[in-house]
């Protein structure tokens, strides 16, 4: 069986070791005689898996004790709504940084609940950069400040952590969580859909400082209240058990890689391979300002867009898939999350070099 190099932005490639372990355990987890998929979420086997996944995530990200980890559903998209519902806390509005497609969606939903101040925007340059903190026009009375750590479509990443003083910092880390160490204590809330860099689609992780829990709008819908999920250890209703199990295997895999410091080193190496090639090429180009380029999602264009289909076809013949860019921007995009091996990026660069020689 030949596995492809999968450059999908999400759902994305998972570590092969994790998939093999899941396959080995599919019918009979740890001599329990059942699949994790079949387990009661209240049973001791699943409760153990759940607790271990949380413990490993806490260890990887060094999550302080005063933060709750919630395993939810509804994707990062539901968090666009849960965040204002829970964090506005009677204040008039919140500050948002506009960096592209995902920030735009977060802003749109927050407007349903309060005033949204767009305190910085990269729209002036087609969202090809991360606005510097000195240009953020923050409101010290804002309920929170929201930003998107990595714009999955535009390929723009913050390589620094904003400082918002006493105003809680809220971050959509869907596409770069676990790609490097982060200082969780600088954040009020971090959230991420799992399907980019954590595990299968269907699980959403929220890491939230405990003083921000319990202040939702009056009579919030039960499922939208962080307090309900926190008080019930993410088991108010049936959690996405199999997704949490796979995420747990990914966390253990990350620990075996040496933790997030080692993982970051490898991600820097992979991104450099691709960007160095792009910068040396007269045929391929990346539009993002150098210091803000994403290590996870690398959009690029061919000099002649009429060759896009030929490029994709040749990639597929070489077992490299999902390189087509997002429909909103066109061109190509290589997503190179944690699970993408260096060999995958090397194969892509070798193919791009060959393609440029033939068509450049
Ligand atoms: C994919 C993505 C989302 C949306 O995630 P869903 O799980 O599909 O709701 C939001 N923000 C970012 C940065 C993403 O990459």
CATH superfamily of the largest domain: Type I PLP-dependent aspartate aminotransferase-like (Major domain)
* Poorly predicted runs of 5 or more residues: none
Mean pLDDT across all amino acids = 97
Strand order of the largest sheet: 2-10-9-8-5-3-4
Percentage of residues in helical conformation: 25-40%
Ligands bound here?
pyridoxal-5'-phosphate
- Counting H and I runs of at least 4 residues, what is the number of helices? 9
Please tally the β strands and state the result: 14
Largest sheet: 7 strands, mixed
SSE succession: EHHEHEHEEEEEEEHHHEEHEEH
In percent, how much strand structure appears in the residues? Answer: 15-25%
CATH topology of the largest domain: Aspartate Aminotransferase, domain 2
Shape: globular
Secondary structure category: alpha/beta
Total domains, how many? 2
What would you say the CATH architecture of the largest domain is? 3-Layer(aba) Sandwich
State the separation between the terminal residues, measured CA to CA. 34 Å
- CATH class of the largest domain, named Alpha Beta
Radius of gyration: 21 Å
Give a summary of the structure in a few sentences:
The chain has 360 residues and is α/β, with parallel strands linked by helices. It contains nine helices and 14 strands.
Describe this structure as you would to a colleague.
The protein is α/β, with parallel strands linked by helices and 360 residues long. The protein folds into two domains: 16-256, Type I PLP-dependent aspartate aminotransferase-like (Major domain) (Aspartate Aminotransferase, domain 2); 258-359, Aspartate Aminotransferase, domain 1 (Alpha-Beta Complex). Helices cover 34% and strands 16% of the residues. The chain contains nine helices and 14 strands. α3 packs across α4 and α7 packs parallel to α9 (342-359). The longest helix has 22 residues, at 259-280.
């Amino acid at each position: 069986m030949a596995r492809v190099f999968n450059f999908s932005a999400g759902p994305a490639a998972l570590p092969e070791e994790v998939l093999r372990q899941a396959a080995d355990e599919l019918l009979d987890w740890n001599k329990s005689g059942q699949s994790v998929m079949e387990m009661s979420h209240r049973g001791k086997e699943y409760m153990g898996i759940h607790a271990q996944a949380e413990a490993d995530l806490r260890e990887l990200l060094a999550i302080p004790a005063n933060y709750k980890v919630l395993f939810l559903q509804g994707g990062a998209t539901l968090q666009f709504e849960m965040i204002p519902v829970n964090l506005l806390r009677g204040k008039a509005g919140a500050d948002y940084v506009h960096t592209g497609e995902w920030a735009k969606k977060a802003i749109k939903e927050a407007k349903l609940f309060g005033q949204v101040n767009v305190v910085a925007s990269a729209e002036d340059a087609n969202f090809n950069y991360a606005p510097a903190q000195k240009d953020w026009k923050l409101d010290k009375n804002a309920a929170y400040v929201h930003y998107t750590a990595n714009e999955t479509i535009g390929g723009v990443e913050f390589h620094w952590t904003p400082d918002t003083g006493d105003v809680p910092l809220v971050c959509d880390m869907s596409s770069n969580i676990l790609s490097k160490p982060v200082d969780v204590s600088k954040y009020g809330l971090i959230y991420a859909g799992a399907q980019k860099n954590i595990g299968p689609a269907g699980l959403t992780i929220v890491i939230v400082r405990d003083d921000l829990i319990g202040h939702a709008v009056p009579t919030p819908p039960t499922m939208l209240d962080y307090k309900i999920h926190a008080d019930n250890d993410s088991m108010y209703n049936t959690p996405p058990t199999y997704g949490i199990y796979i995420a747990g295997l990914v966390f253990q895999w990350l620990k075996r890689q040496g933790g997030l410091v080692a993982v970051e080193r490898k991600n820097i190496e992979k991104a450099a391979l691709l960007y160095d090639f792009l910068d040396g090429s007269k045929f391929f180009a990346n539009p993002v300002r150098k210091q803000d380029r994403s290590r996870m999602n690398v959009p690029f264009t061919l000099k002649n867009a009429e060759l896009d289909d030929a490029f994709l076809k040749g990639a597929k013949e070489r077992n490299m898939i999902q390189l087509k860019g997002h429909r909103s921007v066109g061109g190509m995009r290589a997503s190179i999350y944690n699970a993408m091996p260096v060999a995958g990026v090397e194969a892509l660069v070798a193919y791009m070099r060959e393609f440029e020689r033939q068509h450049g």
